[in-house]
Model the fold of this input.
Amino acid sequence: MSSVADFLLSALIVVGLYMVATSRLAACVRASAVQGIILGALPLTLEWTSGFHPPSVHVALLALGAFGIKAVVIPRLLLRSIREAGVRREVEPMTSLHVSILGAALLVALAFWLASTMALPFPVASRLLVPAAMANVLLGFFLVVARRQAITQVVGYLVLENGVFVFGLGLAAQQPIVVELSVLLDVLVGVFVMGIAINHISQTFDHMDTRALASLRE
Amino acid sequence: MKLAIDTAAYASLLLGLPPLLLGIIARVKAFVGGRSGPPLLQPYRDVLRLLRKGAVYSRTTTWVFRAAPVVALAATLAAGCLLPLRAGGAPLAFEGDLVLFAYLLGLGRFLTMCAALDTGSSFEGMGASREAAFSALAEAALFLVLVTLVVATRQLSLSTIFTALAGASGANPALWLAAAALAAVLLAENARIPIDDPATHLELTMIHEVMVLDHCGPDLALIEYAGALKLFVTSVLVVGVVSPAALGHPVAVAIGTMVVAVATGLVESTMARLRLPRVKQFLIGSTALAAVALAAELLVRGPA
Amino acid sequence: MTVITLAAALALLLAGAVGAAGIRSSPAALRLGAVTGVVACTLGLGASAVWLLDGTEITWRMAWSPPINELSIGIDALSAFFLLCIFGVGGLAMLYAAGYFAAGEHERALGPAIAWLQILITAMAVVVLARDVIVFLVAWEAMFLSSYFLVTFEAHDERVRAAGFTYLVASHISVVLLFGLFGLLVRHAGGVQFAAFAAAPPVGPVAAVCFVVALAGFGIKAGLWPLHGWLPEAHPAAPSPVSALMSGVMIKMGIYGLLRTLTFLGPPPIAWGIAVLALGGVSALAGVLLALAQHELKRLLAYHSVENIGIIALGIGIGLLGKATHAPAVAVAGFGGALLHTLNHGLFKGLLFQAAGAVLHTTGSRDIDVQGGLLRRMPATGALFLIGAIAISGLPPLNGFVSEWLIYVGAFRQAVLTAPREVATAAVMVVPLLALVGGLAAACFAKVVGVVFLGEPRSPQSAEAHEVAGPMRISMVLGAAACVVIGVAPLAALQLVVGPATFLAGAGAPPAAFAPAALRTMSLIALLLGASIAVLILGRRLLLRRREVRAAITWDCGYVTPTPRMQYTAASFAEPVLDPFLPLFHACTHRTPVEGLFPRRAAYNVHLEDPGEAAVRWTLATAIAPLTRVRALQRGPVQLYLLYVLVTLLLLLVWQVRT
Done:
């Protein structure tokens, strides 16, 4: 069953690359919803690598929680923010789209290299787990750094959190559930903070371009 | 029976002798000035006369004004109970009672200062302010002397200190310096020349007198009596340091304190009151003297 | 049993905090917070008192996720005593806060304020109960954060915000030093549990470094000179109930930390005792002198907190000397005096701040020189302030005297023992210093009581003042009653101190070291004093019954129209007292001298600059100045900063892979 997990993890990386490539905000948000669905399914499939058996309550709740928050609640909130703010496209990203895709690919390669040289001391359910996690972390960072619109930055932050979540799944045997719960809570808090920030940015500046934040310095 | 006689002697000494000391000082000053002076028992008559009078209270004052003379007298009486005026030591001696002795006098002083500020008059405020300044410095000197005594005798209670001093053989120069510093503290605490002039009539030059300017009648009687008691109590300390053997017998104590009163009278007659900045220097000088006494005690005798 | 009560008290505090924060309506939130707070503090007070009289040391361990593995809290003599202080003063502060916030007009919602108060008390209790580094530091930070939000409660005032910032900086410097201290200890002992520290105490230079860092880190929190600069800014800026709690208990957490660290560091050398004595002495003297120069009531009280922390440090120094010279009688007296003074100071400083808050509330001004005659308008507050003033000056028969006496006895005992010369000299120097400080403190409080409460009102606001009622008065009465009880019955109060003092002094202290006979005699003398006062008052009343008693104006030496402004002012009162010490400080005196026969205008104003505080500020400024070059990195776009983070992360990963 590890092939299902492998497939899901590689789909995660591809969706991440797609998010970097697109310039339409709504598409970006929907892609993060897709990532959420994948992450909802991931805990179950990781369990099933050793054979098909009904999932434990803890794993089922985890999967349900991840799906609910990452695939439903947060994308819905973000889409509503997009609608209210009336923004459609990413306006002049910092780096041109071609450079973005190249850069993203480079980061994914870097993630794979790092994962291969940093072996975890215990066996993981899938060989792609650590690379996918690292890749998502780096892609998320890239989105935050290289984009101007606040909403894309929020999505980038979410991708980052997804990467951390995947890491947590890999270490789930070693660590109790508290870590996972904290990760989910973290996402929730981050989104709310970002939501408020977006709200205030659009109210104060009448747009969601983060260039105005640059005036915050001494 | 012995205990009853003892206690009676102690009480009569503590309660009865102090105004006589004031009379002695006044008589000595008059004698040196070529006059015959008031009778020795005049302070007793003054106190009784004041007790028979009515009282006038300022409308500005509050209960603090009425409470201050009472508390000052009660505190000085309690301090007197810590003194070893008889062979068995004080009736209420304990370890570290010298601290309580000094701080009881401080309690009386604190409330007198508050009463002075209670009248809302700038004269009394001035007196209270100067009293505060001088008493802080005098406290430091007093405690330096006390700790010198403690180190010299290795005892922690007034009663045992003087018993040990009486039993010690050989002269101790540190104790002479301590006695000199203690004499200066006596002059400061009791508002005698050269720190304050108890006979002046100018409010701007008074310290102690001006603090009690508004008291009259029984309150003033209490204050005068408390002043006499404070003089007695501090004189006993001086007698104890100079000739500790005297502290076992009430009669010897009486004679000793009268000698101290005569000496005070002589000092008052031969010196003029110092200017106020000089008073501070005088007090700091006596603190330094006491510190030298302490250093002499520590270094010469050593921690044997 | 006591354990359950303690846990219940803490849980009740937290529940009350959550509840008060959640309720929208301010009066209801206040009531809920006050009720839960007072009940919880009473429970905690009872539990810790019972434990102190007869309790055994307990530690609880709780498993946690890696890398922490285990959290532990526990209760022993030292913790129980500080819990007593926390819950006692905390309960009084919560009661007062209920009245104070209800009586005043505040724009902000009051629920969060009460909630923060309860969180502060809980955090302090957890600091004292902590038995490993993580719990300690988390609770320490919680304590700091909640007090910060309380200090900046009136954030609309510019000065309050500035004071809050100073407090922020000082607390964080202290936390950094604490991290350093605990880092050293953890590295030496190999574990984060306090038990591990005590089992493997560091020696030699490591111990000395730990001691110095602890003294600095905890000294900032306690307010030892010269690290006290934040105290006179933060305490006056906070609302009065918060000032009472902070001055009363929170700065004692620094003392607790220092004492706890001393239990980790093994037998102290003589130099440590002398260092603490020196610091304590300087703090006490500097604190009281600077207090004399203040004309703002709460700032004056804050400087007196510095003075009293100095006195507590003197006691700790004597205790350390006793430990170093193996004289248990000395150590027990020194530590006992320090601990009792911690409790006493909490009680009377809380009382004084609460009364000051009442004065501020009714007259609207903190300046001493516009008050006057308040005793007539506010008889209860005035009388209670007088009791607090007598207590803080260390005058018998109140509680301040008992703790100072104990420190004196420790110093005397040390002075008469055979010991190295520097020990005897140090112990002997404590005595006149403490006496001088006591005399100056009495002078300062005579000034405050006289100028604020006595005499004639100097301004219309003080003529219009009214008495405070309700919870404010009750909490002040309770505080004053505690001061009187401890002063008049010190033997009973000292039962609570015996356990922790013996614990700190190490084994081998004879019970007679606490001088029970002396304490009994002191109670007797207090009763004698009371009896003679009563007799004299009765006698005077009898005498005056048949005589004429009338009222008149104060003797005015012939001035026809004296005005209240002719009364002695606070600055004038303090001037001769401060005069011999002025060379120690940089004093700015502004004088408009009196000219002519009928002078129109004359003024006198003195402002003392604290050299210690100035030195600390200069050090910080020169240390930070070169660091401001880092500002070049701050260009503006958020993306740039995140790029910094990403690059650092990648570099770290690559480096990690390489090695």
About this structure: The two ends of chain B are 42 Å apart (CA to CA). The mean pLDDT of chain B is 88. Chains B and A do not touch (no CB pair under 8 Å).
